[in-house]
TrEMBL record:
Residues 9-214 form the Glucosamine/galactosamine-6-phosphate isomerase domain. This is 6-phosphogluconolactonase. It comes from Salinicola endophyticus. The gene is pgl. The lineage of its organism: Bacteria, Pseudomonadati, Pseudomonadota, Gammaproteobacteria, Oceanospirillales. The keyword Transport does not apply. Belongs to the glucosamine/galactosamine-6-phosphate isomerase family. 6-phosphogluconolactonase subfamily. Keywords: Hydrolase. InterPro entries: 6-phosphogluconolactonase_DevB, 6PGL, Glc/Gal-6P_isomerase, NagB/RpiA_transferase-like. It comes from the Bacteria. Coiled coil: none annotated. GO terms for molecular function: 6-phosphogluconolactonase activity.
């Protein structure tokens, strides 16, 4: 019997194969490659499959599209999700570059995180975005006071807060998220398909921030 879980597992496997192919293609011509991943509740099946892909992971740098400003072992830490799902097996040889620092707030830590990101081999081979039910992607939230800054900034990262977000955040700016050879959107469930259809039918980025990436071009990975 087909279940939503098995469909989501298959989707994760397909995205993992595509991500590995993208990394392998760029590793053939570059000393190091960069992969930008999202956190949240959706990516675990994809990340577990990606972890098993045969690649020269020692030449792969990994960072996040966004992070909650929490301790590295907090259950809501996106870096923790990557450590527990991706950085296992062959992929444990990859280098994870977290988006947090020892500073108390993202506003205080954003400059040191930006310095760290400057050392990475941009443009990324692949950015895998997620999307919330409100159309947010990375930590570009419709109700965030910093949304305009994150959409327009030339900086790599922006500190962001939003009434609807459960923690203070740090997010790659839209410009930095655009700095990639390939983009994919990984979403599951009928509700998100409906939000994506709304996003495709309009153009107000502040209403549904995912719209900032719909013409990247964006490969859409969706399962019920
Ligand atoms: O808060 C976040 O939300 C989005 C979507 O997460 P999901 O739980 O609905 O899959 C995610 O892409 C982002 O990285 C995360 O910080």
């Amino acid at each position: 019997m087909k279940t939503a879980d098995s469909g989501r597992e298959r989707l994760g496997a397909q995205l993992a194969e595509a991500a590995a192919a993208a990394l392998a293609a760029d590793l053939a011509s570059q000393p190091r490659v960069l992969l930008v991943l999202s956190g949240g509740t959706t990516p675990a099946p994809f990340l577990r499959r990606l972890a098993a892909q045969p690649l020269d992971w020692s030449r792969v740098d990994v960072t996040l599209a966004d992070e909650r400003w929490v301790d590295a072992d907090h259950p809501d830490s996106n870096a923790r999700l990557l450590r527990e799902t991706l950085l296992t097996g062959p992929a444990a040889a990859a280098t994870l570059h977290p988006l947090t620092s020892a500073h108390a707030t993202p506003e205080e830590g954003v400059a040191s995180v930006a310095e760290r990101l400057d050392t990475l081999p941009w443009p990324a081979s692949l950015v895998v975005l997620g999307m919330g039910g409100d159309g947010h992607t990375a930590s570009l939230f419709p109700d965030s006071l910093e949304l305009g800054l994150a959409l327009c900034s030339d900086e790599a990262v922006v500190a962001a807060r939003a009434p609807s977000a459960n923690h203070p955040r740090i997010t790659l700016s839209a410009a930095r998220l655009h700095a990639a050879r390939r983009h994919a959107l990984h979403i599951v469930g009928d509700a998100k398909r409906t939000v994506l259809a709304r996003a495709l039918a309009g153009d107000d980025v502040r209403e549904l921030p995912i719209r900032a990436f719909l013409s990247c071009p964006l490969a859409i990975y969706w399962a019920p």
